[in-house]
Design goal:
Strand content: 15-25%
CATH topology: TIM Barrel
CATH superfamily: Glycoside hydrolase/deacetylase
Shape: globular
Distance between the termini: 67 Å
Protein name: Divergent polysaccharide deacetylase family protein
Keywords: Signal
Number of helices: 9
CATH class: Alpha Beta
CATH architecture: Alpha-Beta Barrel
InterPro entries: Divergent_DAC, Glyco_hydro/deAcase_b/a-brl
């Protein structure tokens, strides 16, 4: 009798174990790529459009091919954003802390006219400008009204741009890794591996690079390998959805930007 009860219990436990789902599921790791400073050199910039995935093309308004390249990128199915010059950047479109809001709006609207098909903007330079809370609060409200997203390039530890975007629920995301502060293929490859490791650790990573020959060489060689490494390369809009407008640990606490 005891033996029969024991066998029945063992069978029952085996059935429960078989029915239970696996304790762990595959951890998703997502990467997005933005290439800045586009619009200066068409043959070079077209290499960006040939990269085999959802590259975001950040186009500077004060470049000779800004409008033409924005149209080409749009036709190629890439997301276009305005790479908006901000202090210490100079030029006719650049934002500076001493300018009134009316002038900032005039420069932004002029830049958006030069770069068509924009889904949103990110800052070019901007270490002083992105620390200006009133201007950043105005910018995020303006982008919200125009149904555009914002990418904080995080060129300064004092940036408040992403925090102001988060306050009003503007679709936004922050950069995690600059690929090419050092312009050697070895250094760029290392930065790419840093981004991959970060994506595995926190679930996602946003990379910004530039159309340097060394950067493009590494990306052309390494990006096709991402899928085999368990990394999903997604568009910046999808990345905003994945992150849900929440800050990562490097940029805030409990999802709130510092």
């Amino acid at each position: 009798m005891c033996v029969r009860l024991l066998l029945a219990l063992l069978c029952c436990l085996a059935g429960v174990a078989h029915a239970m789902p696996a304790a762990t599921t595959a951890h998703k790791a997502y990467i997005s790529l933005i290439i800045d400073d586009l619009g200066q050199n068409l043959p070079r910039d077209r290499r960006v459009l040939a990269l085999p995935g959802p590259v975001t093309a950040a186009i500077m308004p004060d470049t000779p091919h800004a409008t033409e390249f924005a149209r080409e990128a749009h036709r190629a199915g890439k997301t276009v954003i305005l790479h908006m010059p901000m202090d210490p950047a100079t030029g006719p479109f650049a934002w500076h802390p001493e300018l009134p809001i009316e002038e900032l709006e005039k420069r932004l609207n002029a830049a958006l006219k030069v770069v068509p098909y924009t889904a949103g903007i990110n800052n070019h330079m901007g270490s002083r400008m992105t620390a200006q809370r009133p201007a950043m609060a105005w910018l995020m409200a303006h982008l919200q009204r125009r149904h555009k997203l914002f990418v904080d390039s995080r060129t300064s530890a004092q940036t408040v741009a992403a925090a102001e975007a988060q306050k009003i629920g503007l679709a936004s995301v922050s950069r995690d890794v600059f690929l090419d502060d050092e312009r050697t293929e070895a250094a760029i490859f290392t930065q790419l591996q840093t981004a991959i490791s970060l994506a595995r650790k926190q679930g996602s990573a946003v990379m910004i690079g530039h159309p340097y020959p060394q950067t493009l060489a590494v990306l052309e060689r390494e990006l096709p390998k991402l899928k085999a490494q368990g990394i999903e390369w997604i568009d910046i809009k999808q990345m905003i959805s994945v992150r849900g407008n929440r800050a990562t640990a490097a940029h805030g606490n409990d999802g709130v930007y510092r």
